[in-house]
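Example 3.2
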Amino acid sequence: MLTGPTGGGLNNVVQSFEQAGLAHLMNSWVGTGQNLPATPAQLQQGIGQVQIANLAQKMGMDVSTLMPLLVKALPLIIDKLTPQGKLPPSTPAGSNDLISQALNMFGK
């Protein structure tokens, strides 16, 4: 979702949430204050059902198992990727070291 060729990176995930009317969630995750909680329905709205289904398949689990994990992890991942409360500049494809580090951290 954040690093794959169809995911488009962090900036596209943020933009997707904003376009879905969920900018308040993303702003809390990017900002330096408290992260607002998200519901599974909000994540589906912000990420998209197809993207979530693809992620679940890649992780070898069904969507109903993935969603509670994603509800907890995505705000933390976005928060860790934006420690200064700002989005990093867009990076060319393949140069996503910060995203990879965050995903590896949560993968453990």
